[in-house]
Amino acid sequence: MARMGIAELVGSAQALATAGQASLAAELYRDWVALNPDDPLLHAAEFNRGVLLAALGDTHGAIEAFSAAIRRRPDFLPPYINLGAAYERLGAGAQAFGHWSHVSTSLSALTGDSVAWKATALKQMAQMLESARRLSEAEDTLRQVAELTPWQRDVVQHWISLRQRQCQWPLLQPLAGHDRAALLRRIAPLSMACHADDPMMQLAVAHAHVAQDHGAPERFRTTADFADRIGQVPARRLRVGYLSSDLREHAIGSLMAGMFALHDRAQVEVFAYYCGVPQEDATKARIRASVEHWRDITALDDDAAEALMIADGVDILVDVNGHTRSARTRLLARRPAPIIVNWLGYPGSMGSPFHHYIIADATIIPPGHEGFYSERVARLACYQPNDRARPAGDDTAPTRAAHGLPADATVFCSFNGTQKVTPFVFARWMAILRGAPDSVLWLLKSCDEVEARLRAQAAAAGVAPERIVFAPIIGNRAHLARYALADLFLDTLPYGAHTTASDALWMGVPVLTVPGRSFAARVCASLVQAAGLPDFVCASAEDYVARAIAFGRDRAALAPFRARLAETRDTALLFDTPRLVRDLEALFRGMWEDFAQGRLAQPDLTNLDTYLEIGAAMDHDTAEASFDPALDDRWRAAVARRHAYAPLPPDRRYHAAAG
Q: Cα(507)–Cα(292) distance, rounded to whole angstroms?
């Protein structure tokens, strides 16, 4: 081994690791280092050993190896990055940040590698700053990454998301050579859903995200590859799998916790594929106990996860993540089941070639709006499940005084994340507070800087800053309990209240909403109607403001509606989970019948690249798309002009009449 050169060493170690013997590969590096203490490439061997040990979960061993690599060659930067990651895993944030900061300030020569190392270190620093709620510093750090590597779409997307969370208005500022249109072509789907109520643009952005951020898999299955399944199902149960990172103490987990046990086990075999954080909690344990097959695929790569799903023979795979964090989109792109369904996790179309159906209801996707979705629309009576066993609050009744709320004022609340607060929404809220002088607005706490910014915006709008009260993040039971202190929940637009709305309604707090055009902008209207309060779905933004002011001046007028919510909670459609599960199973049977009869839905992606190009040039900042009567006409005119320049194939959107 003493005569083994570094190239031979690396090749042998790689062969061992590929064969599943990573621990032996790490030992090979260790032994080689001991026998070759003066080799000029010793730092590289130590670094490779550290990478292997980190992958094996030996964090302390990895730290020792990376530190040894640094001692051998202090100007070799990669081990600093990995050492920071190892310290972060141990919870030593300050040490981790210090190593990454060293890389970001240690570049003496400008090379492709050095730029990549600095960008990697800055991204790690931004992540840590964000976790510490130092959002403006995280934003500035990501801006530096974007200036170094402007081609990284994920950096641009994260930068925009951070600005949204901070209520930095106007949202889209020039960044690293990206003008406003370029930023819109790269924006993440969730950020687009929060930014503008334009369902056509949302679909185009989602499609670009799938195509450019995930790409096409090297191998995949087609409908023909599942032909042997067609004859199986009459002789066995339909196998339905739910894929999600959120089957735990999370908004999605809390909604779904009670539904799995309600499936008809004589007809449906239920699989749960969990791909989220490893921590245990009561919600995860409850869901795991209520499904027949719990598969934790968090640590599995796509090859292993795909093989597991194929071995399970899942017929319908429900994607309960969509375009959200920790989604396994690349796994879904391989099509590990004959039918893939988009439901609940992401409020909009996936824009992918492998999602066949989207589940909604007639309020969220009204008849005639199907063209804004690449999937075939399947409808429930109300699309959102709810847990009938969810707590009705804490054991101790909260008081307004304990939460910093005035005893006799009208308390408007909106417990949505700050990324959902747009300048248009905030202006409406300020108009409401001006019109109802004896009222306060109760928002969910973000960070000190964001709170100061919103209070300054309130002062500029003629509202005393102290009339905005911020609720700290607390446990779910206590959070539900404090809803009772509010008089009226005010919805946001274009990304409205979803779980937060059903929480409010469950706790007897009416929710005032005005529906927009897109999926995310119409969910709240669906929930409010399903809870039995159709009068709280407003016809316009002006109606929303006027009704809120009226209630703000006469909070006693809300009492009958609060009583109605309490009286009908056990019978309202919104909380009728047994019915939802029965209806969901009927949809699944219809999807399987489509597949068996050769009429499986085919995703419609026609002209979406062109729609993105056109939509990115439109103004979504100065006019609120939700209430813009000319939006559809502008789209049609722009598409017609583009068609006159270079013919487009006909589609079912704004180019339907072409031939």
A: 32
- Count Cβ atoms below 10 Å from residue 368 Cβ, excluding itself: 7
- Cα 375 to chain centroid distance, Å, stands at 19
* Residue 569, H or E segment: none
- Which bin fits 78, alpha (ψ -120 to 50), beta or left (φ > 0)? alpha
- What pLDDT digit, counting tens, does each position of 515-551 carry? 999 999 999 999 999 999 999 999 999 999 999 999 9
Tell me what pLDDT residue 107 has.
58
Please give the pLDDT value at position 428.
Answer: 98
Kindly write down the DSSP assignment for every residue of 184-217, as one continuous string: HHH--HHHHHHH---HHHHHHHHHHIIIIII---
**Residue 575, both tokens:** 């909380």
497 Cβ contact list (under 8 Å, min separation 6): 414, 415, 416, 489, 491, 504, 511, 513, 523, 524, 527
What distance lies between CA 439 and its chain's CA centroid?
33
Q: What separation, in Å, do the N-terminal and C-terminal C-alpha atoms of the chain show? A: 72
Q: How far apart are CA 83 and CA 63, in angstroms?
A: 6
359 three-class SS: strand
pTM: 0.88
Q: ω before 494 within 30° of 0 (cis)?
A: yes
pLDDT tens, 369-415? 999 999 999 999 999 999 998 877 666 789 999 999 999 999 999 99
| Whether residue 133 has pLDDT greater than 60 | yes
Q: How much is the pLDDT for 111?
A: 53
List, as one string, the DSSP characters of 55-83. Answer: HTT-HHHHHHHHHHHHHH-TT--HHHHHH
In the predicted model, what is the mean pLDDT of residues 565-587? 97
Q: Per residue in 404-447, pLDDT tens?
A: 999 999 999 999 999 999 999 999 999 999 999 999 999 999 89
The secondary structure of 81-147, three-state, reads HHHHHHHHHCCCHHHHHHHHHHHHCCCCCCCHHHHHHHHHHHHHHHHHHHHCCCHHHHHHHHHHHHH
Length of the chain: 659
